[in-house]
Write a structure and sequence with these properties.
- Helix content is about 45%, strand content about 10%.
- The chain is built from nine helices and six strands; from the N terminus they run E-H-H-H-H-H-E-H-E-H-H-E-H-E-E.
- Helix 9 links the parallel strand 4 and strand 5.
- Helix 1 packs across helix 4, helix 2 packs antiparallel against helix 3 and helix 3 crosses helix 4.
- The radius of gyration is 18 Å and the shape is elongated.
Amino acid sequence: MKLKGITDVFFDLDHTLWDFDKNSALTFEKIFKINDISVNLTEFLIHYEPINLKYWKLYREEKIEKSALRFNRLNDAFLAIDYEVEPALIYKLSDDYITHLTTFNHLFENTFEILDYLKVKYNLHIITNGFDEIQHKKLKQSNIHQYFKTVTNSEMVGVKKPNPKIFNFALEQANTNMDKSLMIGDSYEADILGAKNIGMDVVFFDVNNMTLDANIKRIDNLIQLKNYL
């Protein structure tokens, strides 16, 4: 069913448009080679990915600082595979990861197709919890920056999704209101509940088939947004 009255569409970036897991895996492959780290990449990622999500949740909840997130997610992953790495090298790997992450810019299937379709009828925007220094690089180097009228990140606002302040800040930047706006994202807690809590309509990008509420609109491919917009 097509939604009525929507003028502004807000997207999350990582895991929604920008294929974070694929780009992150390629980055680790690159920086491990640079730093002579001899680990099985698949085994490392099996441990790293849930550890990373755990620390992002703590970061989102204001329980840890960015520096702790960046160090601990790597340190814990190496401990999990019983591979000893000195703290100094952990810090270097953390810096190298940020440096090289935006050299890979795979997007989810149909990203360009859906953005081309939507830009004709809607104002498009980004709301992201990602680090300021790399989110703009991701947008530019993946060649999707030109689609978005505004980009709001958590470091600009001082709070992270699902805090209502970041959504209200984004609406103000976009010169619109919640009744005319739609949020699309992959995080049920940060994107979907966060936007719903201030009265925004939502579409859950549910690639892992983890729908928790049958009443929430969901897609598992971006092109399915045509069903609603």
